[in-house]
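call fold target=CDC20/Fizzy WD40 domain-containing protein
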Amino acid sequence: MDAGSFSSSVSSGKGRSASRRHPLQDVPSRPFMPSMHTSSRNPSSRQTGDRFIPDRSAMDMDVAYYLLTETRKEKETAAAASPSKEAYRKLLAENLLKNRTRILAFRNKPPAPAQPFFHEDDVVSSHHVKPAKQRRYIPQSAERTLDAPDIVDDYYLNLLDWGSSNVLSIALGNTVYLWDAADGSTSELVTVDDDAGPVTSVSWAPDGRHIAVGLNSSDIQLWDSTSNRLMRTLRGVHGSRVGSLAWNNNILTTGGMDGMIVNNDVRVRSHVVQTYRGHQQEVCGLKWSGSGQQLASGGNDNLLHIWDISMASSNPSPGQNQWLHRFDDHMAAVKALAWCPFQSNLLASGGGGGDRCIKFWNTHTGACLNSVDTGSQVCALLWNKKERELLSSHGFTQNQLTLWKYPSMVKMAELTGHTSRVLFMAQSPDGCTVASAAGDETLRFWNVFGTPEESKPAAKSATRTPFSSYNHIR
């Protein structure tokens, strides 16, 4: 690799911030109350009678009579009583009556029960209550920054992708570089001639080994990244540069400046199998749904199309509408597209500088579910694979990455650091790290979606890859 073209400028990877999670705690439910038919009192301590009824046997009747009549007599003789007589009366009450003032006598309070109605040991927890989930810590600065000189500052291109083998590809001018996230090593895949370049799009095949490279000359190259071998060149598919690519198993879908969308079966010699016609200007966004049944395309004509694979035709009749839905709600170019990972028919789309909106679509019914004005050009969109969150990258004025909570679309975080519009984003295979590339010629890595979970090694899949049956592509 050319020294200095893709070197690390800032590295703080070992200081990766981890999200802090607290373990769930079991909270007891409401205590169980025993049946009122079963008393836990000691039967031997029971006494007859009611403690609120006076007990004559406990009363001194003479004292009671005196207390009842003495007050009346005192009132009658109050004026004639001398000080000495009053002192005598008080002394008599203190010595003989013991200063008693109560006339009626009651039983003592009943003894305390031998056992309480219930003990803490009798409390039954019918269910476990989970404590509230703590908010994930989101680092506000990039985990790592790499130089990306000569990156083409063009909104309509797609120059960054992260493959399933944890290798990131980026096109810088006429050269495609590969960065291995496992060890941080960098290698050069290909440098094209000036008459063919610059590179206008890159996209990894599902197998994480093969990569498609779109060129300004309208050619599409297919490379084996492990052997750095050119396997095939698709020519004559488009009349101008190929700015968008999307894989659907063995089908490579290409979008060009000519407004055409073409499905190419890379396994066969006559690779063009379907053509979609609907855009009048450059196709700058292409994304297949997770099921592979629907394709979303965005163009510089401000249109968003939803294509269904069942409606595809190799030779459509003139005037035939191939699209399932055609949306013209955006007021600028539609490049940013992202299918929701937890709801198969939910698509998010972002508009350019004249629109600045993120819109959400039900692709089954064609309904626009919501529209949010972000205040700046929307360049790229990515869903969190584990939480209901959406990440968007923007242009002027802040050149930020914004994390949104879905569906409320409340801002959770704004990540700044780029000094030019953040044109491209790619997500790591584990879904935790996001790479962003901008016109400021830097590639930054953000730990925005959490930390990866330890997982068992996956068994080798028997699923056939696009190139599994061929030593080379004809």
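return ok
DSSP finds two helices and 29 strands in the chain. The radius of gyration is 41 Å.
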